[in-house]
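Shipment paperwork, digital attachment
Item: protein structure file
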Amino acid sequence: MYRLLKGVPGIPQGSRLFSKKSHGILAGVGFTRSKVDHALYIAPNNIYLVVWVDDLFLFFPTEQAAVAGRMWQGLQAELDLGKWSDIDDCLGCKIQRDRSSLIMTLTQTAAIKELMVKEGLAKANSVDTPCATGFIFTKADCPQTKEAQMACSDEQTKYRSGLMSCMYFSSWSRPDITFTISKLAKFMHNPGPKHQAALKRLLRYLGATSSRGLTYSFAGHPAKAGIYGYYDAAFADDIDTRRSTMGYNFFFEGCAISWHSKLHTYVTTSSNHSEYCAGAKAAREAKMFQMLMTELDFALYVSPIDLFSDSQGATAMSYNPVNRNASKHVDLADHYVREQVERGTITVTYVSTKDMVADALTKSLPKDQFNKLMGQVMGYILG
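Attachment content:
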């Protein structure tokens, strides 16, 4: 047994030790840790620093370059940091700025192409959507015996590796594949041939759309100013558990900044119930944005946060506290959306289903509808 005198790469406590050390160093040069997100540090004059594992990202207005430079020099005295430069690549995510047009894009083209080569699909035929319309995800398609599992163990290992790579892309710049990934991830422990075929289709879609990403335009005023969100639910769509899939996405400057797709953790008893529960999850995310933006002195963008739902019943439940037979069983936690409406943190507004951009996070859609909605989410225009 040996006692380490300092943290070394690879030990379980390494990230915690680095976080503890970096926190003290950042506090010494004038940064204060955010109460909402502990990876974010704030300094006067709108200077922000984000810690991502062992990478540091410094953001500041042009007129504060001198102040930020002195802070960076203070960090260099304590950490092994080089001269700063504009961020153009962040862990495989390419960041491009058109400063004349005030447009910023986030893409992962190179990393996706690398994955396609690794999977042997660099020259595979393209597809228009990540998931076939009407595809049924069920554990009935999983190998049912140990012998069957052993027979396809190599394919299952490859499935897990490929799906984890897709998860990485989804979390950074590709909300269009989030629904499919959330479904395929349920079978990661024991995927069958149909699940593997579905993953292959997802990869073929990624390869065909590798240049797509998120496009933010700061040149003008979007149709909706500030942060706003959409949420939706597909009632009892999981045939194994009869649970509903919920999804939400939040926007700023005409492009998505947060998205989520997941099965409810419990069975809902009606379409209104599932939509209302999805609203509670979206309200929590909205509350986080409200706290964060207020802390950053940008409360104007979240006063309040507008949420949109395509369920008139769930929208009415968000405002009307009447206790009916159809809603008496609703869990206490799901009334969170109503409380945030009463506090003025959010508003909930009805939109038609054809305008519900979160629809692509709860179900597989035909090509035209999918591209229309995801074009709005990601800020791209198809030629």
